[in-house]
Amino acid sequence: MIERLRAAEHHLLAGGIETDTADQLHDRGVRFHESLVEASGNAFFIDTIRRVNRVRRLLSYRSMQHRERYPEHARQHLHILDLLARERNEAASDMMRAHLRHTLDAITNIASILEP
């Protein structure tokens, strides 16, 4: 799983951010977050992340004009994957929290495009 997720992030950093469709970018983010949660085996968390990801789709499409944030997200994802591969789970958890905070801050910065 880790290598498959790493490959997707490297693809983005190698140019996919500019060339992938909104669907592809959204699906990559969904796969990353759902794969990590599924690895926990916690049915409640799995159901929750799937529900959150359904709501995120609209946000993803509306934020495509702000692709400059994606390289940092990809680097954060790779860092989390590296920590997991080294079995540094607590550090990976801390990094995931920081990543989610960074994402929430980014949403705040693009809030104006979310208005219908």
TrEMBL record:
Keyword annotations: DNA-binding, Transcription, Transcription regulation
Domain GntR C-terminal: 7-101
Record has Ribonucleoprotein as a keyword: no
Pfam families: FCD
InterPro entries the record matches: GntR_C, TF_FadR/GntR_C
Domain of life per record: Bacteria
GO molecular function: DNA binding
Name of the protein in question: Transcription regulator protein
Native organism taxonomy: Bacteria, Pseudomonadati, Pseudomonadota, Betaproteobacteria, Burkholderiales
